[in-house]
Amino acid sequence: MRKTTATPADVARRVGGIPAQPGRTEPGSVTETLTPGDGGPLRPAVHGVEAVAPGVIAGAGPVGRPGERPTVRLRDSAPEEQPRYAPEWLELREPADAAARAMDLLDPLRIRLANLPGRSGLAIHDLGCGTGSMGRWLGPRLDGPQHWVLHDRDPYLLHFAAVASPRAAADGSRVTVETRRGDVARLTPDALAGASLVTASALLDVLTREEIETLAAACAGAGCPALLTLSVAGRVELSAPDPLDQEIAAAFNDHQRRDGLLGPDAVNVACEAFADQGATVKVHPSPWRLGPRNVGLTAQWLRGWVGAAVEERPELAERAEPYLAARLAACAAGDLHVTVHHSDLLALARPTGGAG
């Protein structure tokens, strides 16, 4: 049994920053096909799931179909383990994520998708979809009919993702959604059968080397590209540099590597794993650039960043308390600027079916 490493959102929640989600995920795999309604863009309420759009099933698929075969295997998890992400944190970071994602990777991705053999529309698997921010960002930037398969272990997050999914592609083609409940860390061999593209955000750094190698092999077997965005790079820059900045960053990076997870080493490992499978790999920086317009996100990120560092190195606590207070005061005053470095990775696997 392996506990997942806490993210900044987890640590912030423990100190009162972000409320936990109701309930917990039970083991299993759930599938339900959904089509966003025609009444305009759908945005779920953050604090509940009572308001459900017409045609959308609450919980994004509460039961499985007879004889259905799970395609994602759950990690063993302790009953007391909290969900990895709260929807409030994901909603808070979505604008910064959208601004950070590497647009330069879209053209080579579009070219590859246009040349995939035997495809009528795109089947896109979004791993660890959270509230569906990747689909909202990418779906309207790609042409042609799209069917998104949203994977997450938390049915509460799957509900948000399904309700708020885009209705149309860039050229107006239809977009449909299917949800699959389960932990995406260990894909079974058939999980990506028929996939045109695999996507994920902020996922690689919470995987192990073995799990990334499994993901790379699954993409290679499906002959589909993978767009894996917003993996932490382990570097942070804050305005008015403080001597404690680097100590906090180093402790946080060590915290991210707990229990064999890769943290800031994930992108390098993923590059090797996909290249070993014969894929062409492109990496592009995708930093958060936080300033006065991102006060809420910056404050939550700061609490989690410092909190995880102190959890890793308790001897930092005495100095970290006034450090955090000063940084939060500067943030509230609009005087703090932070660059949190991430990387986006595009792996172009060799397509099956003979196309180059």
Describe the structure.
By secondary structure, the chain is an alpha/beta fold. Helix content is 33%, strand content 19%. It has helices at 8-14, 87-100, 106-114, 133-138, 155-163, 209-222, 244-256, 266-276, 295-312, 317-332; strands at residues 31-34, 72-73, 122-127, 146-152, 175-181, 186-187, 197-201, 226-238, 280-285, 288-290, 338-348. Helix 1 (8-14) crosses helix 9 (295-312), helix 6 packs parallel to helix 8 and helix 9 runs antiparallel to helix 10. It is globular and about 60 Å long. It starts with 7 loop residues before the first helix and ends in an 8-residue tail after the last strand.
Summarize the structure.
With 356 residues, this protein is α/β, with parallel strands linked by helices. The protein has helices at residues 8-14, 87-100, 106-114, 133-138, 155-163, 209-222, 244-256, 266-276, 295-312, 317-332, and strands spanning 31-34, 72-73, 122-127, 146-152, 175-181, 186-187, 197-201, 226-238, 280-285, 288-290, 338-348. The strands form two sheets. Strands 1, 3, 4, 5, 7, 8, 9, 10 and 11 form a nine-stranded mixed beta sheet that branches. The chain has a two-stranded antiparallel ribbon with strand order 2-6.
